[in-house]
Structures are given as structure tokens and as C-alpha cells.
Amino acid sequence: MSKVNVAFYWMASCGGCEEAQVDAITDDFSVLNVLNVVFWPVALDFKREDVERMPDKSIDIALINGGVRLSEHVEMAKLLRRKAKIVIAYGACSSWGGVPGLGNLYTREDIFSRVYSEVPTLKERGVRPQPKYVTEEGIELELPEVLPLLLPLNAIIEVDYYIPGCPPTPETTLNAIKALLEGKLPPKGSVLGASSRTLCEECPLNKTKPDKVLVVGYRRIYNTKVDSEKCLLVQGIPCLGPLTRGGCKALCPQAAAPCVGCYGPLETHVDYGMKALSYIASILDVRPDESEVKRVLDEGIPDPVGLIYKFTLPTSRLRMSFRKKA
Amino acid sequence: MSEGYEPKILMFACNWCSYAAADLAGTSRMKVPHNIRIVRVMCSGRVDPQLIIEAFTSGADGVLVTGCRIGDCHYIEGNYKTLRRIILLKKALEQLGIESERLRLEWIAASDAKRFVEIAVDTVERLRKLGPLKRHFDELSRVIEEVRGIE
């Protein structure tokens, strides 16, 4: 069997996706027999020029993680699209923006002034990122430009498949890689490797959830003693399991931490965050009085956008005025 | 502010109270600003926040959600949910850089056609002051197109 050429690339990401990929491979070394890694900046010394020299469509699968935050990411995404037959958005950032996508709540200038002018360790130097710099020796150096906002991969290029998660679990990754190798692929634009149902359906705590959940207020995990044997929602912890895609085997709820939604929306959602907002407000059981509702919500949900759009803000219908291509 | 700007307002009205009030205003030949487009729903509790932002992204400058008065809901507590959702949604809208005044929640009894007209007129007036929402999306689209154009 001829080997499959695979390219990995990272954009605005934390490196967790790379770890997940390595974890997946060490879980099942047999995939290494068929994979031929042609580009992997985090581990192998291939440069952009090497990719440029490859014939078009010579890479079988390109797995790209991280959001698009630098001009370099746009260039590389377009380059890999030309060179690869199948492009996969790997992880939450690449699929919908992820946690770095929350940066879109601020302007680039806000972020720069916070990081380079207000943070004590850096403000002394007062230096801002510059696309061009001439060293004392007269050598001109170029740096990629920071973009005004973070975009998911599919805002720049056509994405064939998505592998969700922050990061995708080794099991999800292997499921997806096996589906790709066997050629058993769903329609373009689908999610690979994860479940097509919600997290609650695979959560072992689900059996402790009553048919109708109502909470008198929301509690936050930093000051709450959580019972890890009981459904978190029942305990008033805003867990996003009821609407988030499953596939991670409910790792967080079993460790007494609520689901924060890293496996993202199901196909039926128009806007994941709004769906989350709707359900969080719905199950609250308080006196229908404006000031009372406000008080309870302010106390339990101090940062609604940070909760409902933790991984999907850049794909919110209000932030992207164009429709995502299917 | 753009010249000749007329705000577009999408109103969700519940079948039992606020739609009846709007209907009564019509049959009583009361004048209602033409800026208001009404969508009848069975209950204000049916108005999913996804629908509200869909309205904003489809060209509405404001969204008016109306229902029975608290305690009068035909389905007992449908409007309690509406109240909680709209309060949370307004907070989220502010964080997302959209004026929360663009979303308004009002309770209108079935017999209160006068109140419906007053709210309609007042909402149009408030939105006229806020200006078009399109600017927000135009600016975003411009930035996104610019980023996409990088070679």
C-alpha cells in the first residue's frame, strides 16, 4: 500500500493540538505505517519553500490547527489549499476560532495596548509588533502582520472536513484518520471522528439528570464544591453538555468540571452561542421580576459571551456578516 | 447619520395578547408607523434568540419582542422564559458591540391597542436616534474581505 502524504500546520494555536496528534499516534502506532509526513513545522525542519516546491495536489491530507490571526496564516492556508487534496480544520480554533477567537471582542489596538503598554514587564520597552525592522547591521527583517481580527479557517479557504475539540481527543483523532484512510467519508463540510449527538447522551452522569431540569441560580466552580457523581446542571453549574457535540466521552463532567463546549455545535444549530444562551436562561427558575432575574444572572453568569461563545465567537452570526459555506 | 434613514423593525407578537392588540389597533383605524413588520408567534416564549439575531443580520435595525403581561400568559409561564432570555441576550449584545436598545421587550394586553401604537411609535423614534445597524456589519465585512485578499 502506498503511503499517504500528510501535512500538519499550526496557526494561532497553543500547541495542544500537536500534543493531541502525538498522543493519538502513540495510542496506535499502526497509523505511522501508512502516513508519510511531508510538512510539520512544530517537529520537522521543513520550510515554506519546501511546500512551495511540491506539485499541486501532491499532499493527500493537510491538517491545519489554530485560527487565522497573522498575514502569514492566510498565505499558508492558501498555499496548503493549492497543494492538498483534502484540507481539514483540526481543533476548535481552526473550526470556529476557539479561545483566541474571544480576542475579537476587542480591537487589535486594544489588545496591543494591553499587551505592549500596560503589562508591567513589557511597558518599559514600549515596542509594538512591526512588519518591518532594520537591525543595527543594516539587515532588513520582515515579520507577519497581526490581522485586525481572528478568523476561522473556512473564512479564508474551502475546508473539506472538521475535527472538533480543544484539543480533539486521541480517540476522535484516530477515528477521523481511520475514516480518511479507509475513504469512508461523509459529505464535504462534515465533522469527522466525533459523535452526531449531544454530549449528555454519552455522559455517565446523565442518569442522575431528572426529566426536567430547573435551577434557582447558577454557581461557579471556583467557589463551589462540586459532587462529581451527580449531573452538574442539577447542581446549578452551567454545563453546555445538552447542546454540545459529543465524542469526547464526557471527560470534563466526569472530573467535576462543566462542559465548556469545545466540540462545538451540531448541524442543527444556526448559532451555537445563542442556543446556549437560550437554554441557560430557560432552565432558570426565579421569580419573573426584572430586577430579580437580573440579580441572579449577574451573580451566576457574569460574562455571558465568555460562556456561550467560548469556542465559537468568530462564527457568531453577529460577528460574521456572511454565511458559512456548507 | 445617513440621510432619509428609516429604521426597519421586526416585531414578534404573541397570538393571544400582543397580536390581538395590534389587530385591534388596525380595526380601530389607529395609525401605526410602517417601519414595524410583525411576525405572529404562538407565544413570546417561542422566540429563540437565534431568530432575533437572524433578524439583525438580515437587515432589521431593531427587534421588538412582545407578549402577554406577566401573569397573563396563555401558556402560564411562557413569557417568564422570554423575560429571562431577553435580559441575558441584552447583556450579551452589549458585549458583542451591538447597542442593547436595539432589542426591546414589552408586554401588551389584548385590549390595549393604544399601548401597542405608543410602543411602536416610541421604538421607531429610539431607533432613528441610534442609526442603522448595517454600519456594524459593513465595517466587519470590509475587514474580513481585506483579510481574505491577502496573497
Q: Can you put this structure into words, describing what you see?
A:
The complex is a heterodimer of chains A (326) and B (151). With 326 residues, chain A is an alpha/beta fold. Chain A has three domains: 4-99 and 148-182, 3-Layer(aba) Sandwich (Rossmann fold), CATH 3.40.50; 107-147, no CATH class; 199-315, no CATH class. Chain A contains eleven helices and nine strands. In chain A, the strands form three sheets. Chain A has a five-stranded parallel beta sheet, sandwiched between helices. A two-stranded antiparallel sheet of chain A has the order 4-8. Residues 321-326 of chain A have low confidence and may be disordered. With 151 residues, chain B is an alpha/beta fold. Chain B has one domain: Rossmann fold (3-Layer(aba) Sandwich), CATH 3.40.50. Helices cover 46% and strands 15% of the residues of chain B. In chain B, helix 1 crosses helix 4 (113-130). The model of chain B has no long low-confidence stretch (mean pLDDT 94). At the A-B interface, helix 3, strand 8, helix 9, helix 10 and helix 11 of A face helix 2, helix 3 and helix 5 of B.
Notable features of this structure?
heterodimer; A: 326 residues; alpha/beta; Rossmann fold; 3 domains; five-stranded parallel beta sheet; two-stranded antiparallel ribbon; 29% helix; disordered C terminus; B: alpha/beta; 5 helices; 4 strands
